[in-house]
Amino acid sequence: MPGFITNYLDKNVHVTPGQYGSPFWALVYILLVFGGVSLAVVCMNWLERKILAHMQVRLGPMRVGPHGLLQPIADAIKLILKEDIVPEGADSFVFLLAPLIILVAGFSVYCVIPFGPTHAITDMNIGILFMLGVSSLGVLGIVMAGWASNSHYPLIGALRSSAQMVSYEVAMGLAVISAVLMTSLNPAGTGTLSMIGIVQAQYAQHTWFIFKFFPLGFIAFFIFAVAMVAETNRAPFDLPEAESELTAGFHTEYSGLRWSLFMLGEYAAMISVSSIAITLWLGGWMRPFPNLLQGPTWDLAFSLFPALTFFGLAAMTFYSTMRMPKHPYFRIQTIGLGAFGGVFVLIALILLIPRVRDGVQDVYWFVAKIAVFLYLYIWYRGTFPRYRFDQLMRVGWKVLLPLGIGVLMATGIMGLRTEIWDFVHRLVHI
Amino acid sequence: MCTGWYTSDMAPVATTFFFYFLSGLAILSGVLVITRKNPVHSALALILTLLSVAGLYLMLYAPFVAGVQIILYVGGIMVLFLFVIMLVNIERSEREKQFNQQWLPGILAACGLGLLFVLIYVKGKALFSQPVITMPETENTQRVGMMLYSNYMFPFEIASLLLLVAIIGAVVMAKKRI
Amino acid sequence: MSDETKSPSPQPEGEKPSSDKIAGGISSGTPPPGGAKPPAPSEKPAVAPGATPPKPAAPGEKPAAAAAPAKPAAPAKPAGPTPQPWDSPLVAKLTKQFGSGIQPLTYLGQNYLQVDRSLIPTILQMLRDEEQFDYCVDITAVHYPKREKQFDIVWILYSFSKNERVRVKTQIADAEHIPSAVPIWAAANWLERETFDMFGIQFDGHPDLKRILLPDGWKGHPLRKDYGIIQQDQEWVQINLGIESGQ
Amino acid sequence: MTDPNSSVSHLELEESKKTFLDANELVINMGPQHPATHGVLRVILRLDGEKVMGLECVIGYLHRGVEKIAEHRTYTMFNPYVDRMDYVAAVSNGLGYCEAVEKLLNIEAPPRANYIRVILTELNRLASHQLWLGTHALDIGAMTPLFYTFRDREEILKIFEKYCGARLTTHAFRIGGCQYETYEGFEKDVKKFLTFVAPKIDEYEELLTTNRIWVERTKKVGTISAKDCIALGVTGPVLRASGVKWDLRKAQPYAAYKQFDFEIPTGQNGDTYDRYLVRMAEMRQSLRIIQQAVDAIPEGPIMAKVSKVMKPPVGEIYHSIEAPKGELGYFIVSDGSTQPYRIRVRPPSFVNLQALDLMCRGQLVADVIAVIGTLDIVLGEVDR
Amino acid sequence: MPQNYVPVFIFIAVVGTLIPITLLLTKLVRPSNPHREKLLPYECGIDPVDRARGRYTVRYYIVAILFVVFDVETIFLFPWAVKFKAFGLFGLLEMLIFLGILIVGYIWIWQKGALEWV
Prior knowledge:
- The complex is a heteropentamer.
- Chain B is 74% helix and 0% strand.
- Chain B is an all-alpha fold.
- Chain B is globular.
- By secondary structure, chain C is α/β, with parallel strands linked by helices.
- Chain C has 5 helices and 8 strands.
- The termini of chain C are far apart.
- In chain C, 45% of the residues are buried.
- Chain E has a single domain, classed as Methane Monooxygenase Hydroxylase, Chain G, domain 1 (Up-down Bundle).
- Chain E is built from 4 helices and no strands.
- The longest helix of chain E is centred in the C-terminal third of the chain and has 29 residues.
- The radius of gyration of chain E is 25 Å and the shape is flat.
């Protein structure tokens, strides 16, 4: 088995495992991504509670582990030990299948997400289409969950949710097309739908697409950014789960581990749509200014960022460790927090090794960009009230959709401005 | 069977397995679609059918069509189906008889269809003596574009009229107070 | 001083004005147009930080509002806390129209009309339409089991334009119906339902007279005096809660 | 009647007659176990999609028979019970009750007691409004204001606790005055609180007042005209937001309110946004009143002469005050004994809740939540 | 099957087996005490009045059908988008006509109020 790995590393570092065609190697990547995303969801869970808490002048989880670090684990254990209730009159088959569909749909998107030029499970030349299609499968899961529960609140939640996701998908698609348009602005005149290809196109055109044809790229990005919040049912578009109206929306009747699958799916979807936005508009895995700040010195400077980040985290952890109460009761927690900082230092040191340092560059920048998006998600949740359903639909159909069509047309015209100019020129001269 | 389209980075893998797996899945779920009493279950089975057909498109090196299949049929039309199914009274439809009693026309139609299949199988080789136009997978979308926007330009524009009619029809039929 | 005048009878206001008209008599002689504002001028007791005179009753009730200058003749307060006859143009008008059917009284600066059961719909309608008592504050009842006419029904009304409060009271026997005030004040809806729930008084013409605080199907009306404080509908508890007793 | 909770509503009956073809309407229960009904309120909604075609409130889940209990307690013993009605504005309840009995006894609280009463009542009004704001914002989906308001409300509760030992159901006042003299540093605490909380109110407003989503969610939602308000007996900030400048503290001043200079904030449209603005302005007015009261608090006794055994003369009295939610009235009938013959509480929430149907008809489900929040009901008071 | 699509199937297989296995495994540790009251659908503490399925407004249906139409439109745009430079002015014109016809429909439904929720 190491043969596969060495083989891959030696010969085919420029292709993704999918293109390499080795099922084993693909499986390794799949497990890595699956585990990584699950871990990210756990971290996100803790971070969301902490950040939200601090925005709201409270502490958030503090009891399980130092600063509540073990809270997600405690939650997981609790959820595992909870009874799994299938309500009376529910269509049990559909009821049990629904979270699975949502999860599979949420995770399948990761097949095409490029964490780096080679760090993707596979590269499809219809990557964007695949992502749009698979993420639209989530709607089915939601409708099924709501319908199967045989309860009013989940049904209304599911209908709302599907109508909402479906509405914003149109705007999302239009925004995506205007990014695809930009990829074909090369001498060959051939664009691509491949996720890796889109990032490479941004590299080739020396700009992130968000800045292309300013403000067109930015508007398209904005449309996508709004639509993705709506697609993931997050505040301020969290109507399907509006707890004050529908208690918990389509997953009201779910409990225990099965309920946690919905949460897992939701957070996984948040991460995946953020990655898509990053891939399409924010240069994907590229570090900032890859064209401007070139040269070995800059490369070295940027390659130190991962290690520095972890050193920073470690410093924060150590600072908190020092600030822990000196009471013997907290001794274990203090030691735990210190050990946590130690782990950070260790990771940082590993990241200083030149080979590793270069290897994680792409993934680091990608994850860093995702982190910004996730922070924005949390920030929205702490700031905005919830939209009402008709307002939500109005934003989707009457604001984002025309905006999307407009941006698309404008981008097309901008992309062909020389041809148009030539044409007009010729007309005048004839 | 697909070796003819071999490209360096798109080597076919386990073609036979996937073919039988996907087509078997399509047929099985297709049967489920018509035998399930509960229309929602039928719809779910139909989704599976559509997905496996999408897989078959992939095998034919037509990823764009596969993507369209997933986005439009699974993500769009099936959601619409589910909505409509939920609009009707499922309890009632479950109580009703699944098949009506039109046995004779049914059998005749089945025989006719079977005959057609057999004919196609027998005569097909003669009709399609040449292999289908080869289409490198990497350029599939671009090729579709070329076809659509040059050769089939007029039908394409007609399609937009069709969509317009669909919009108007939907609104007129569904909206009570216009 | 308030303590001495209490009388042992459980029917506090059935007796009406007769007894002592110490201060009230003065006011009744001179028909002051003061309406509901007898205590108005003497009304600033809360202001003075000094000794609080016990006499001027009801600090909050009737301050000199906009209507006060028009009707300045408010006399001194009734000294003893017994119901006094109440005089005002409103009263004069009402008495003229209804004669002995109503008894206008005032007690501790608060005015009320003791009205005959038969006059209730007319009077309430009139109070709203002609006297601008546009706000029905409350409707409730009081149970006097020993009396022949067991229930006092009380309407507490308020007029925004006059800044004036008046209570209308009538007596009805058990099982006697009373017309609903919902057509007059929409607010009466729930208030009447609660009165029905608690006392079992039927309001004719109420759109949806049913229990409001107690569950449907409960037996008995708890605010009647013969309904003990720990009494409950055992049967209901047994059927619905599956226990022998909620106590 | 097999189900303890099912009171068959006319909505449900209507619904059962419908056939499939015209059954676009859906009857759903909101409450009693629902996150946004502020307690155990049950609202039966008849929906056409998301649109509310009608609704009916079912109340009584928290009915404890307060009025009945009163008939078996002496006047003094009943005093703590009123705190449990509107438990977020217990001080106001106590004030209304004490003043009503004082009136019946024809006595009056000494001025110092009245000043203390005003300070505590206005603090309580502030606390009640803060709780309203937090929960109302949470209902509309804004999570953060809840924590801000609870943080600041805590300071008020601390003052209560220092004054009388209790935080929520304070039982701060007695018939005839106040039981407790203010503690050492009471004025200082209150003044400190005033300077602390004024910028906090700006902070709440900063989060909400100009927030686009907040404005969209509240403007033109749950509109009720002044005429309807009066017909339905709606009082308090809801009435004022409809443009009626009426506040019992001004209209029929009680306690020491006559001495203070404050305004009655009013709105024009009677929608949820106006009610929000009115309550925010009321919070500022409360601060003004407290400031004046604490600056001018007179010395003197805090308790009037009241006999240990209270036997009010035969008679009846109605006294009402401006509670945070509206007009809170007590109708007390005395038969000359030590126990009230009958006490009727006129709860503002109960009467205000009647307007819910009118305010929600034709709006969306989400608006029902907003309207319940903006009515600021407390089920303890609705059900008593 | 082209090799770079195989990982998708592996992925679905992995997710589709891992999760049910987890669910089955946790069956060993989690309790199961079904009770009538516990199994009742949530209706805010009230026993459900009727079955929940079916019966809701036709508006959701309009949204779904409009979505399908606009989705088809979006799909048509993809092949153009990847090649639009090569199609040049002619392609752009074609696309503008295509979009124009749809925009007419869009304006029509806007005018008709089909986009208003209530």
